[in-house]
Specification:
Helix content: 55-70%
Number of helices: 5
Number of strands: 5
Radius of gyration: 44 Å
Number of domains: 3
Distance between the termini: 83 Å
Order of helices and strands: HHHHHEEEEE
Shape: elongated
Strand order of the largest sheet: 4-3-2-1-5
Length: 309
């Protein structure tokens, strides 16, 4: 609109200037009547030129206002997008931090039964591993059924394109990828636990497609804890290595040989605290495990705790 109005104004201005020059050059040779006619034409031309010029000015001002509003809108959009991006990055950082925390504790919380140097007796370790293997068997069976169902659905989509669209096909492929990765993780974990069970039972280790993808390591925290536990296995642990005392608030009947029998009111020395809710300590010269929910920890005297604890 601005360009059209500008073109119109330029044309009218040229005509007005041409008429003005014609009147100036011929007013001496014309009669009063002709002169008046030319002046009337010149006046009308000036009015038209002024009106178009005013319209052109108003259009320019409106365009300027629209441009300012557009720039402010872009600025606001930029700030909103910047804030959303900031929130997205913060959310991703939070997720990565949680994932890192989870992975850092993953090896500590899930490998106790597999550790040949742990304080668990052989039978307890076997039973614990078998329970986890059974749970993995159930999960693997379910994951395989899910994979088969998704594969059948994809086959139906491929054979009958009218049943689906591109978006549905992509979502189904994504579900298949996720389920396949989940199945791989379950099978790898199952194989890892099966190796530990075979080692306990004296059977040869089997070969699996994930054999080269599994490695074991020990972090410093676990080595330190194992060292403390190993020292605590002696018949008379050193008094300096206990980390506290507790009092039994309930009776407890052991189910395994490495567990202590508790009577309400018994006083125990605490040597280590397991992450699974079981503690290791001493009662009447005998060491073993006991559930932390059956005891009440007593205030620790500074001289009782050793420097390493």
């Amino acid at each position: 609109e601005q360009l059209k109005m500008k073109k119109k104004l330029v044309g009218i201005t040229r005509e007005h200037e041409a008429l003005f020059n014609f009147v100036e050059n011929n007013k001496q040779m014309c009669t009063e009547k002709e002169k008046q006619k030319m002046l009337n034409r010149l006046t009308k031309s000036a009015e038209v030129q002024a009106r178009v010029d005013e319209e052109y000015f108003n259009i320019n001002m409106e365009g300027h206002q629209m441009r300012l509003k557009w720039e402010n809108t872009l600025k606001n959009c930029y700030q909103i997008i910047q804030e959303l991006e900031k929130q997205r990055i913060e959310l991703q950082c939070n997720i990565l931090s949680r994932y890192n925390l989870h992975m850092s504790s993953f090896g500590q919380t899930l490998k106790h039964e597999e550790d040949s140097k742990s304080l668990m007796y052989k039978d307890r370790r076997k039973e614990a591993i078998k329970l986890k293997i059974q749970r993995l068997d159930d999960s693997i069976t379910k994951a395989k059924k899910d994979c088969e169902g998704i594969e059948r659905l994809m086959k139906t989509y491929s054979e009958n394109p009218s049943f689906s669209n591109h978006k549905n096909l992509e979502e189904t492929e994504q579900q298949l990828d996720e389920t396949t990765l989940k199945l791989d993780l379950l099978e790898a974990t199952h194989y890892k636990l099966s190796l530990s069970l075979a080692e306990l039972e004296g059977r040869p280790k089997s070969i699996h497609r994930f054999s080269d993808s599994i490695m074991k390591w020990k972090d410093k925290v676990r080595v330190y804890i194992r060292g403390v536990k190993h020292a605590a296995r002696g018949p008379k642990p050193a008094h300096e290595c206990r980390i506290g005392q507790c009092k039994a608030i309930y009776d407890f009947t052991p189910e395994q040989d490495d567990e202590l029998t508790l009577k309400e009111g018994d006083l125990l020395n605490i040597y280590t605290k397991e992450e699974n809710g079981w503690w290791f300590g001493e009662l009447n010269g005998r060491t073993g495990h006991f559930p932390s929910t059956y005891v009440e920890e007593l205030p620790v005297i500074g001289s009782v705790k050793c420097s390493d604890a």
